[in-house]
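Support request, priority: normal
Reporter: lab tech (M.K.)
Component: structure prediction queue

Hi team, I submitted a job for Probable oxaloacetate decarboxylase gamma chain from Marinomonas sargassi yesterday, and the status page still shows it as pending. I've pasted the exact input below so you can check whether something in the sequence is tripping the parser. The sequence length should be 83 residues. Please let me know if I need to resubmit or if it's stuck on your end.
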Amino acid sequence: MNGLLGDGIGLMVLGMGFVFLFLCILIVATSFMSRLLNQFFPDVAVAAPSAKPVAAPAASKVDPKLAEAITAAVHHYRNNKNS
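Reply from support: The job had stalled in the queue. We restarted it manually and it finished. Here are the results:
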């Protein structure tokens, strides 16, 4: 039984070592690719768009009958949804 336990612990340590080595290689490769991309494609400063006042849509352009129909439809939907 002692030999099996020792072999199991050895395999566990070996497996964990390979995973740790792979993750270290992955970190190095990712860092290298990041530096390489930043060298060939540096960040370009984006100019902030000028603050233009956004005009709100005028309420007078909405037909009052249409607004009343929409209000009635929403009211009807909300009442039937709860039933």
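Residues 32 and 38 are 10 Å apart (CA to CA). The chain has a mean pLDDT of 86. Let us know if anything else looks off. Ticket resolved.
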